[in-house]
Specification:
2 domains, globular, TIM Barrel, six-stranded parallel β-sheet, Rossmann fold, alpha/beta
Length: 475
């Protein structure tokens, strides 16, 4: 059988590699992971494991790091390099980069399995669907395969893949997904591009059976003994019939506290929704506010979410005893400094327990990035290489007040959690951006992250220190 080594820069559990690893191991292949290491550590892992494939799950912004590591591995070890994840899905020309042997677009389980089977059997794999493969100076770009309709047929995530990471022992928070895909059409998100990629390739939004999820959770409890479950679907439980049946089973058979991502308008439409979540063990939910400007939220972001729905959702969640994290974005195309402060004020008014805020990152080929380019907010030569590793540092937009908006981002959580600081924040945003602002942001962000996701203090602190470059520095 063949051997695959996943390589990533963050010491964090991602669902994609765990699903691919589970599929490969079920077929008899060997899979390992190395994370958070410099080149020396990665090179040592390759020498020890001798993989047939070095696989990089890549987000835009991290692709430069992955490309550098892959090139050096090819130089020193001659290993076959495979890149997947959002970056290669939306920028398939990445296959043309020196040091890249193949890329995978879209869902990777079946494509990577077919590749590994072919390698093990000594067969040609240049025609594997979802892959683009480079060989002998030529590139073969293959079609996208149909989506697997029965997502229950995938094995449960391979939790052993990340077992070697610090803090990966019993307890803590473990992620699970109950569905794939999203029905909504927000312009800042990649989902519309994914839907276009898979047009006529099968149903895009697919749900696991409630029983299948429960069985995975039982196995997860037995192996990992988690303290909290994090349902990390794009939107958890948008099918209320499915959700309410699942919650009844979850309460009886699992009984752990859980966290999930929801839509504010779903929570606003029915007070029973929040009560049922709480009764089953939900203590924290996350939902997007994005901006305090209803015009920006619905005309530019196409979120389809009113101020009134956000306020009703907050009321229903508070009444049920559920704390909530709000997702917010500053530096949006067309946003003024006054709009940005309206986002602060919205979060204050709904008493957001754990405000979260990023700076808009104009990922090329999203609808919102195209809009920003059309309005002249991006330089003509803007490319994926201009995207920083972190969306907590600075903006790529050329707009009035953008430096003050970047400064406000560093004090966003402060102003929401302690509204009495707002006059001071309004004065501070007028100063030049500086490292002290970033440091303060990092401290308050750490506080909110630990509280909202019920993470261990010291484990999270050590994680943050090991991965600080992704949060407090430019990529």
């Amino acid at each position: 059988m063949s051997k695959l080594l996943f390589i990533q820069n963050l010491e964090y559990e991602f669902m994609g590699p765990m699903y691919i690893s589970a599929v490969l191991k079920r077929a008899g292949h060997s899979v390992r992971l190395v994370a958070g290491k410099d080149y020396g550590g990665v090179s040592e892992a390759v020498r020890d494991f001798r993989p047939d494939v070095a696989a990089f799950p890549v987000m835009t912004g991290q692709h430069r790091w992955a490309l550098d590591i892959g090139r050096r591995l090819k130089r020193d070890h001659g290993v076959f390099t495979l890149y997947g994840g959002p970056h290669t899905t939306f920028f398939p020309e990445f296959i043309e980069e020196d040091g890249v042997d193949a890329i995978c677009r879209g869902e990777g389980e079946d494509a990577v399995l077919e590749l590994m089977d072919a390698m093990a059997a000594g067969r040609d794999f240049s025609g594997v669907a979802n892959l683009s493969v480079k060989s002998g100076g030529t590139i073969r770009r293959n079609d996208i395969r149909r989506l697997r309709a029965d997502v229950d047929s995938y094995p449960f995530c391979d939790r052993e893949l990340y077992a070697g990471l610090p803090g990966a022992g019993p307890g803590g928070v473990k992620g699970v997904i109950t569905s794939r895909g999203c029905v909504y059409k927000c312009t800042f998100c990649f989902e519309e591009s994914m839907k276009a990629l898979y047009r006529d390739k099968g149903r895009y939004v697919r749900f696991r059976s409630a029983g299948g999820v429960i069985e995975e959770l039982k196995a997860l409890k037995a192996v990992c003994a988690p303290r909290t479950i994090y349902f990390c679907d794009d939107v958890f439980g948008i099918n209320k019939e499915w959700l309410y049946g699942f919650l009844d089973m979850y309460k009886k058979e699992i009984g752990l506290e859980f966290i999930c991502l929801i839509r504010a308008d779903v929570a606003a439409s029915d007070a029973e929704y929040a009560r049922k979540l709480y009764d089953a063990g939900c203590r924290v939910v996350f939902f997007g506010v994005e901006t305090g400007s209803e015009r920006l939220r619905n005309e530019v972001l196409k979120k389809g979410l009113s101020d009134a729905a956000i306020r009703r959702a907050a009321e229903n969640l508070h009444a049920a005893g559920i704390r909530f994290r709000t997702y917010n974005i500053l530096g949006l195309p067309d946003e003024t400094l006054a709009d940005a402060f309206r986002t602060v004020e919205m979060n204050v008014s709904i008493k957001a327990d754990y405000p979260w805020c990023s700076i808009f990152s104009p990922y090329p080929r999203t609808e919102l990035a195209r809009y920003a380019a059309e309005k002249g907010y991006l330089s003509p030569d803007f490319s994926p290489d201009d995207i920083p590793q972190s969306f907590f540092i600075s903006s790529g937009l050329l707009m009035k007040d953008i430096k003050r908006i970047e400064n406000l981002h560093k004090f966003f959580q402060t102003a929401v959690l302690w509204p009495w600081t707002l006059p001071l924040v309004k004065a501070l945003v007028r100063l030049p951006p500086n490292p002290l602002f970033r440091l303060w942001f990092g401290l308050v962000y750490f506080y909110c992250y630990v509280r909202s996701e019920k993470r261990g203090f010291y484990g999270t602190l050590f994680f943050a220190l090991r991965n600080y470059r992704s949060v407090l520095t430019k990529g």
